[in-house]
Amino acid sequence: SGEPIPTYAPDGTFTGHLRDQDGNVVLSALTEENEAQLTEVAEATG
Questions:
Q1: 25 near 46, Cβ under 8 Å?
Q2: Torsion-angle region of residue 3: left (phi > 0), alpha (psi -120 to 50) or beta?
Q3: Which H or E run includes 27?
Q4: pLDDT band at 46 (very low <50, low <70, confident <90, very high)
Q5: Do 18 and 25 meet the contact criterion of CB atoms below 8 Å apart?
Q6: How far apart are CA 6 and CA 12, in angstroms?
Q7: How far apart are CA 15 and CA 11, in angstroms?
Q8: Residue 7 contacts residue 16 (beta carbons within 8 Å)
Q9: What SS3 state is found at 41?
């Protein structure tokens, strides 16, 4: 669950997707820890 993370060249050209050290495409993910951190930021900034 998640989506591939796109990568871009400095000029904005799409270059593919982020890959891990084994060459597998990295998917975005929201962990419970990250979700709590985002909630804190949202509450602090309104």
A1: no
A2: beta
A3: none
A4: confident
A5: yes
A6: 11
A7: 11
A8: yes
A9: helix
